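Supplementary Note 3. Input sequence used for the single-chain structure prediction.
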Amino acid sequence: MTDAEDEEQSLDLVQRVIISSLVVVVFGSLSAVLGAYVAGPQQDVSHNDAVGLWLMSGVLGLIAAVAVLVINRHKPYSPWALLGLLPMAVSAYWLFN
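The predicted structure, written as discrete structure tokens, is reproduced below.
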């Protein structure tokens, strides 16, 4: 490979890492915040609304995980996509107990 190709591959890797980090921070934090809100004490939210927010946290987490996989040129149906459901799984204990 020439120096120009090495530099282009290096730049491509850096771009993918930065975009993946942004996706994880934006969508992952939304998913985590919704999961934390559902797990916390709800005084003004009905149980049905809390379940809806719980499902939304799972969907946002799954979208974030799939987006990171696609950005990094992996298959979107990889088992790693299930990591996006982690905030939903953690908050389920507090929601249903």
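The helical segments are 3-39, 47-71, 86-95. The two ends are 59 Å apart (CA to CA).
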